[in-house]
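Journal club side-thread
Mid-discussion, someone asked how the predicted structure for our own chain would compare to the paper's figures. Pasting it here so we can look after the session.
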Amino acid sequence: MRATIIYDNTAWDKRLTPDWGFACLVEAHGRKVLFDTGAKGHILMANMQQLSIEPADIDAVVISHDHWDHTGGMDAFLADRPVDLYIPASCRTMRDQAIVIHDSAEIYDNIFSTGELRRIEQSLVVKTDNGVVVIAGCSHAGVTTILTEAREIAPVTTLIGGLHGFSDFPALAGLTRICPTHCTRHIQEIKNIFPEKYIAGGAGRVIEV
């Protein structure tokens, strides 16, 4: 599995434009899924171009939750490439064109949605030979809640994405890789506590599992 952060508050690849928001391309099991679309379409599309990511190659878009910094690039992307769009039940953006997710669901073989958790957000879950990878937008539903749901599939080894104000750091102890991005308030604390597990985020960062 390969995850490429396209949109983030910081830029790992200095050719890319940083901006408040999140988007990540997930490549696994022969599928390419765009998870979230950042805040601004022109930044999303420009960063994709710099990373040589072809919109035409993407199979689906999964939106974590209905906040502007995760849905803002959707129109620009879908205008270029109409694909299946998966949104949580509370999301109103593009609802008439989307597949609405209520409960946990397998989107493709070994690629799952957690389902909408706590009536606000879904996360993407990818089962690999090296355990489960979770990609989160902002973790409004709670990191522990997300991990608990993902563990219904298999043990979780990797967490990528926004963790907001999460500070229950012992809950991350069983993971192998932690890449906190976007809205995560305690990035430095996570890095200090788990230096061997911490992976710096930023637009252009690639994580392979």
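Post-session note: The longest helix spans residues 41-50.
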